[in-house]
Amino acid sequence: MLKAEHAASGGVELQTDEGGAGIRAARLTDLDALIALERHFPGDRLSRQSFRRLLQGGSAEVWVYEEAGCVAGNTVLLYRRNSAQARLYSLIVHPRYQGRGIARALLHHAEQAAMRRGCQRLSLEVRTDNAPALRLYQKDGFQPVRQIADYYEDHAPALRLEKLIASTM
Ligand SMILES: CC(C)(COP(=O)(O)OP(=O)(O)OC[C@H]1O[C@@H](n2cnc3c(N)ncnc32)[C@H](O)[C@@H]1OP(=O)(O)O)[C@@H](O)C(=O)NCCC(=O)NCCS
């Protein structure tokens, strides 16, 4: 059974339980599953080569949500040297597993990791027509910064969102 708990910070953290459900760091052996998940992404999909680079380099963190041996979601966070801003590069949950709080848990996990690395802000780009994702990010406290025209391969615009995750004081 999946165990969802409200963390002290107010977020929801999915914890690994006896059934093997939870968030963990992605491994090279997850490549097939990561690529399969990308098919459910609305355009601009990450290639196997890109995922391999992300998993092997030091400037990204990739996590998966696994349940009963199935990779049901993933998120990718990018860091830049000497920058207090991390970038949420990808977040996806397989349609069969959507609506259960998994994306929110992955997002919360990424925010905690960015804070631990000393980042103060998180940024991301989202399609302006991606209502579920926009709602997720807005409910989590992300603010629109600007619209970027012709951002995606199909020329659709993106909205840049940012969230302050740690005090600048
Ligand atoms: C967007 C996405 C990641 C949400 O995953 P999910 O696990 O179903 O989301 P959660 O169950 O954690 O929902 C968290 C919040 O997101 C919002 N949300 C999720 N699905 C939604 C939908 N279909 N319609 C409206 N809001 C939705 C809601 O605010 C929800 O909170 P609530 O249920 O308390 O209202 C998922 O739909 C997905 O993988 N889409 C394809 C890939 C994608 O677009 N990724 C984002 C790219 S920037």
Tell me what the structure shows.
This protein has 169 residues and is α+β, with helices and mostly antiparallel strands. It has a single domain, classed as Gcn5-related N-acetyltransferase (GNAT) (Aminopeptidase). 24% of the residues lie in helices and 34% in strands. The protein contains four helices and nine strands. A seven-stranded mixed sheet has the order 3-4-5-6-7-9-8, with helices on both faces. Strands 1-2 form a two-stranded antiparallel sheet. The longest helix has 15 residues, at 102-116. It is globular and about 40 Å long. The N and C termini lie far apart (41 Å). 29% of the residues are buried. Coenzyme A is lined by residues 40-42, 91-93, 98-104, 126, 130-133, 135-136, 139. Residues 40-42, 91-93, 98-104, 126, 130-133, 135-136, 139 line the site of coenzyme A.
Structure in a nutshell:
The chain is of the alpha+beta class and 169 residues long.
- String of helices and strands: EEEHHEEEHEHEE
The CATH fourth-level homologous superfamily? Gcn5-related N-acetyltransferase (GNAT)
Question: In this structure, how is the largest beta sheet organized?
Answer: 7 strands, mixed
Q: Provide the structure class.
A: alpha+beta
